[in-house]
Every structure is written in structure tokens, then in C-alpha cells.
Amino acid sequence: MKIRQIEYFLEVEKTLNVTKAAQNMYVSQTAVTKQLQLLEEELGFALFTRENKRMQLTEGGVFFKEEALRLMHQYHLTRQNVSAYRYGEAGCIKIGFVKNLDAELLLTYLSRFRAQHPDVEVNLYGYSNQTLHQHIQNGSLDIGFGFSTDNSHFHYQYLKSYPLIALTAKESPLAQKNCISQKELDNVIFDIRKFDENYSIDFEGLLAKIACGYGTAIVHQFAEVNRFHEYVASVPFIPLQKKAVFLIYDDHYSRTKELFLKACQF
To answer: Hey, what domains does the chain have and what are their CATH numbers?
Structure first.
């Protein structure tokens, strides 16, 4: 099994067309077809069904796709790590974070890392907490900023805890309070406590509704009000309840991940 064969397979799987895949890979159609045949012979099963000039993954093809993606990720990660080792600190780190995370917290650690390793490229991706963990586990992310789970596969480094706050329109009398309790809130259109941490919310849409007076919301303080700050007020919620944010990673080796942990003193 050769890396080139796997690359051809993944390109054909993406396009479901050998001719188009060959064009995208800048090789002949014959070359792609031949390498796919050799790959299928080695695996012992067909990867695609071919009916009426239409291609579709077989059950074996679906299974092999997941293995191929993991293998290619490890291949590229190995090349990245070798490059980083050869040239010192060059390379790339892929960092995920839960959506609506406190930007100041994220920037604090990114700034520390960049100050020590300015040549490392940083790629950032926002996900739900569940998807964040999935990408860390399959190796497509090196590290993440999010919430802890019961999965012992991951390492969690505590970063900061955030209390609950109430969001209300600035024109509302509630905006003038020093703190606010559940019984004082009317028309609560969103309460983060009723959703697990994998829930994905259209936060911009929620803020727009609050700004227009459609109701109030209960969220954690790390949620950014951003450009709605002139129209939406945040008020401390009582009784005090907090949510912790962690730095998340697993045992996948990544040189740039190790550099990040060291730079952030973990």
C-alpha cells in the first residue's frame, strides 16, 4: 500500500469520478485506475461500485475511507514533525475552541505561544464541545479549549471558571440591577442550564432578539456580547454558578503541541 494510492482513492471518493480525480491530481486517468486496482487487489475487496458510469463507495470502501483519513493525517503530521525537528520550531499547530469562548482567554495563551514560537503557523477552528473532542481524538486537532467530559482518554488543564450572567436589553429596567435572580427574569428565551455543552446556539441571532426586546437569556460569562454591547447588558446571576474551561489534549504526539504546552507552562 502506497501513500500515492491512498491519495488517489481519497480524491476519487471526493469526486466520485476517476477522470475528474485524475485532472485534480495532474495525472492520467489510466494511472489512477491502475493504482486503485492494485490497492483493491492488496486489500482484498472492492472500494467502489460502478454502475451506469456512476461510482459509489462499497461497505468496505466506507471502512477504508476512515482508516485512510487517519493514516493520511498521521502521514502529514509525521512530515510536519520531522520538518519542525529539522528546522527548530517551524511547523503548524491546529487549535480548536468551543464557539462563543472568551476571546481574551484564547488570545492570552495564543500570545504566549507566539511570543516564543513566532514561526509556527497557528490554525484555529470553532466547534461544539463534542465535535471538539472528536477532532482531538482522531488527530485532526492538536489541542482544544473547551469543557471537560468523563472520557479518561483526554488530559484537562484547568484555565478559568466563569459565572452565569443574565442578558437583557440595555433599555430594560433589569439592566440597572447589580445582580439578578431567576424569579426576577421574565420571558427567558434561552437558558444554557437546560442544554448540554454540545448544544450549538446561533448566538448572534440570540443577541439580536434580546437587543430588540424579545426576552432575556441566561448564559455563562465567557459568551461574548461583541458588537451588541451597545444594545445588550449583562447582569451577574444569583445564586453563583460557575463553568470551568480547560485546555484539552490527548496522547497523540505532536511536536508543536509539546511546544504549546511548554510555552503556556503546562
So the answer is: 3-70 (1.10.10.10), 84-158+245-263 (3.40.190.10), 160-243 (3.40.190.10)
